[in-house]
Amino acid sequence: MADFSRVLAGPYTTMMLGDLGAEVIKVESPQGDDTRRWKPPVLDGESTYFLSVNRNKRSVVLDFKDPKDLHLARLLAKNCDVMIENYMPGTLERFGLGYEQVAQDNPSVIYGTITGFGEDGGRELPGYDLVAQATSGLMSITGPKEGPPFKSGVAIVDVICGLHLAVGILAALDLRHRTGTGQRVSVSLLSAALAAMVNQTESYVATGVVPSRMGNAHPSLFPYEPFQTSDGLLVIAIGNDTQFERLCDALGDPSLAKNPLYLTNEARVVNRDKLKLRIEELLSKQSAYEWAKTLNTYKVPCGPINTIAQGISLASELGLDPIVRQFDERGKEIPTVASPISFSRTKVTYRRTPPKPNQDGETVRAWLNSLDKDETRD
């Protein structure tokens, strides 16, 4: 797999596929991937942002302005199974690395493209996650009701875009296995963001209702948000009437579930303000931790609002093995977050630590030059 992508969405895709067994060659410019300079935080001088999405890859630096390096880049594109890129539309075409150009010499190639806003009216618009969160409407539904719009705490649109591209590439590979034909797979940040807002975007396209910020509240469910206990907040997430009945039993007020104002979810949503007051009145008798233990015994979906450190700790306690501990060629440990995928027969593999710039340049160049010599002899 030839990875001509930078920053997050593309590298996330290629790391996912690398975890699943793909051999990934990461092509970097002489300046390197932008995220190598996105600091702090750092681990032994390396950007943790870069480390988060670049394991299981080999790195080679190729300068497309250098004819010899450009020739090697074209050789790589000609001989790869999958190529992924996220340059501005039209950029790689100038170097003979656009889809039509690559497919001419490599007709079975699966060519993955990420753009910010598509390749028609939005082809000139640079794509960054924050811009996509803003322009898609995601920020308009994120944040307190009376406050300003908020972005997500992580570049969630990039991640979702990368996931969609990975799914598309796997589908294209399946078709190629059956027919021998390659194709291009394209995903834009804007389209991925609109798809990821699921019920919120459907609310608008189906009914014309424009969603707005509700803080931590849910537009279609209640109780489904953080609630104040005696010492802090506890998230309670009720998805059906049976769960609500169990919640009322756990809180010591089973009659609450029989109140006509709260019999159905729709009724609870309409009367959420009054019901919230009663729930928090009952929750005030114990701490968030005590209530979490009690509600769990009643099989009521709930949880404390953890820090990331506490989230990692919880996953470890539950046997989910959230951390991959690898060692680089110097013997230094480089921990990364594990793939969430598990299989009943095969395994996700962690074969290579995130590479230094051009770490595998000599090996990759030698391989490409050998291909060049073979073609010359033919």
How would you characterize the overall build of this protein?
The chain is of the alpha/beta class. The chain has two domains: 2-198 and 321-377, Crotonobetainyl-coa:carnitine coa-transferase, domain 1 (Rossmann fold), CATH 3.40.50.10540; 224-313, formyl-coa transferase, domain 3, CATH 3.30.1540.10. 40% of the residues lie in helices and 15% in strands. The chain has 14 helices and 13 strands. The strands form four sheets. Strands 5-2-1-6-7-8 form a six-stranded parallel sheet, with helices on both faces. It has a three-stranded antiparallel sheet with strand order 9-10-11, with helices on one face. It has a two-stranded antiparallel ribbon with strand order 3-4. The two termini are 24 Å apart. Residues 349-378 are annotated as: Disordered. It comes from Ferrithrix thermotolerans DSM 19514. This is Crotonobetainyl-CoA:carnitine CoA-transferase CaiB.
Salient structural properties:
378 residues, alpha/beta, Rossmann fold, 2 domains, 3-stranded antiparallel beta sheet, 14 helices, 13 strands
How many separate domains? 2
Question: Which shape, going by the Cα principal axes?
Answer: elongated
Looking at the overall shape, the CATH architecture of the largest domain is: 3-Layer(aba) Sandwich
Strand content: 5-15%
Number of strands: 13
Strand order of the largest sheet: 5-2-1-6-7-8
> Remind me, CATH topology of the largest domain?
Rossmann fold
SSE topology string: EHEEEHEHEHEHHEHHEEHHHHEHEEH
Write down the overall mean pLDDT.
96
Secondary structure class reads: alpha/beta
Specify the biggest β-sheet: 6 strands, parallel
Helical residue percent? 25-40%
